[in-house]
Amino acid sequence: MRLEGKVAIITGSGRGIGKATAVKFAQEGARVVVCDVNLEDAAKTAEKIKELGGEALALKIDVTRIEEVEEMVQKTVNEFKKLDILVNNAGITADAKLVKMTQEQFDKVISVNLKGVFNCGQAAAKVMVEQGNGVILNAASVVGLYGNFGQTNYAATKFGVIGMTKTWAKELGPKGIRVNAVAPGFIVTPMTEKMPEKVLEMMKEKAPLKRLGTAEDVANAYAFLASDEASFITGAVLSVDGGIVL
165 labelled as ligand-binding? Predict the structure, then answer.
């Protein structure tokens, strides 16, 4: 198992890509701290991990609140004595064209998707620097590489996450910490359920692989980057998009 003995925090892991990643990490031997703004969802993910024979702790966390984030990291260290991996997966959308986007829509997405990543990365890095090792993985998006119609706020956060990933890789590399990002394309998740069927079909046809991605496709990428197999990879953005941007 590639993550045997590792301790991982995964934010937004109550459902979707985060849930699939939590389960994958547990299957690879990690002890997983399942964090979500919805405690019921987090508990369900943790229960599934335990049913599969893994070890998990469920926590209710709002990543925009630094005090909750710091408590999350402290509880992890108290429970498992260390923190090896952070997956900054929590994210939201609030789409609208530029001329119609409200201040509330813009601010809410920036707060969760950008400041939330900063909060979690900062809190985890403090522990990892002290340990002398660790891995931070950030959820970017193909939207953060190429932009997307109607997603000014979301694209801004994902471009920002890529910038933070590369900056942190430079700052934390000498401390033994690797930092990478995964940029999913169109993945079948509860978030895509809001999209019109014709849009999903269009995206499927646009991709050379002629399908949408699954949460497990992204989870597999995170598992690789978190493992020692990726020990010489840092500052990278791994696209998991079926070639949709080619």
Answer: no
Q: What is the pTM of this model?
A: 0.96
pLDDT digits (tens, 9 = 90+) for 102-149: 999 999 999 999 999 999 999 999 999 999 999 999 999 999 999 999
Count CA atoms closer than 13 A to 108's CA, side-chain side: 11
User: Which residues pair with residue 60 across a beta bridge?
Assistant: 36
Only one residue has tokens 């690797």, namely 178
- Sequence-ordered list of residues with C-beta below 8 angstroms from that of 38, at least 6 positions apart, any chain: 14, 60
Helix (H, G, I), strand (E, B) or coil at 199: helix
- Asked whether residue 14 is marked as a ligand-binding residue, the answer is yes
Copy the structure tokens of residue 67. 């005090």
| The one catalytic residue among 72, 91, 120, 154 | 154
Quickly list H helices, the chain.
16-27, 39-51, 66-80, 103-110, 116-131, 143-146, 152-172, 197-206, 215-226
Ordered domains of the chain (ranges, CATH): 7-240 (3.40.50.720)
Bridge partners, residue 31, by sequence: 7
**Residue 237 in contact with residue 138, Cβ under 8 Å?**
no
Question: How confident is the model over 51-62, as pLDDT tens digits?
Answer: 999 999 999 999
The verdict on whether residue 157 carries a ligand-binding annotation is yes
154 is catalytic: yes
